[in-house]
Amino acid sequence: MRIALCSTLLALVLLVIPVHAQIVDDFSEGGWTLFNSTPGTLTTEAGSLYLEDAEGDSAWVTASRVFTVNVDETPFFMVEVKSVSDRGEVKLIRRDTNDKRVAIKIDWPGLYAADMREFGWEGTLDIEACLYASGETENITYGYAKFVEKPTEQEQALIDERQAGGNVKLIVPPFAAIPLFNACSVYFTSPELDDLQMRYRARGGEWQRAFPPVYFVEDTMYRGSIVNLDEDTTYELELMAGDGEKLAQTEFTTWSSEVPIAQTIVLDENNFDGHLRITESGSPDGWIRYTAADGFVLRNDRESPLIELRGAKYVILDGLTLRGGNKDAIAVEKCEQVRIVNCDIAGWGRDGTQRYDLDGKFYTDQGQAINWDTGIRISRSLGTVVERCYIHDPVSHANSWYYSHPSGPQAIGADRPQSTVVRYNDFIGSDLHRWNDAIEGAGNFISDGGFNRDADIYGNFMCFANDDAL
Fold this sequence. Notes:
- The chain contains two helices and 40 strands.
- It has a seven-stranded parallel sheet with strand order 20-22-25-28-33-36-39, with no helix packed on it. Strands 1, 3, 4, 6, 9 and 11 form a six-stranded antiparallel sheet that branches.
- It is mainly beta.
């Protein structure tokens, strides 16, 4: 009788609380493979799947595995991210219809979840989970992946904690003054106060009051700017509470237009063959300057950038005339303190055919819409200056809004740099070769997109943009 009663109770429990078969992969069994089209490194062990992108195209690496999933019973895909150097992504592909969805965007370690019912998926499906590390030579470590009925209370708390983390890419000291030529950003981590004032002065001069900083609740931080500063000048800065109590003080020195040159490299037909890759670095006390022999024009057949700077520091490109370049004429990637001044850049980009049968954009012979063909691309670099340059006449074209959102070339592309100055330049398109944007930023909807932070853009002349000047 007791056995029969227990069996009846167990059956009732199973009816009230259905038991669904979770799929949990801690990467101990392997089974993940790299995409051939995205070269890089993949290693797996219990509790870890590590991905690292290889240098060169395509600037991301992907590992995938196919799971058979009952979406009705386990509709949530969850993934733990242990570490990420830049960004990552998860795409889920329904194999029977090749329906590919971007399920998760990753910008910080933590727990992520996606509900596949939002894709309109149901029933038992073969689903290919694709894990990405995004960015050239960037890496990411995943802890586990699983398909579940729903996150547990503890898991949901971890998801909520990550989402409430504020601007996770804003990494600054508790009190920081970050100067440029004529302005300075100020960051101050603090509980919100009744009043906070900033004042500044050239060392030993008269105090001036700056605009009060603004409080950002999500970052528990005050942020503000001081403007109309003089170049190459040391300033004192104080932050005070409403009652006059001094809360923080520091000094900062604005940038100088003149920097010490330790080495000058003159480019000519003997040392430039159509492509120059710069990885060497100068120092704060001695920059490396690249210029050209009288009348020498840097040219190529548009199969590669004319100049690539990768990981370089304290380098100046000065007075160069460039004709050519594929998607970029000049690429500045993961550099510090690079200045591009007095350069004349034209004739870069991809030529294409305008497809009126599609969306009016210009397409390559391979069927790719042409966009982000850039005179100077600044990617994840610190302290880049573009000054007094003439960037004009790309090979590429941009469609008008009459057909669809403009797509095409740009004079400058900003991909999440920091402390960037763009001033006194002429970015001139034409009726036949219009810009998409004269200056375009990557990542309209991410917290560190575009010029990111601590940037000055002024004194530029921009013409013939179909979408935005900036």
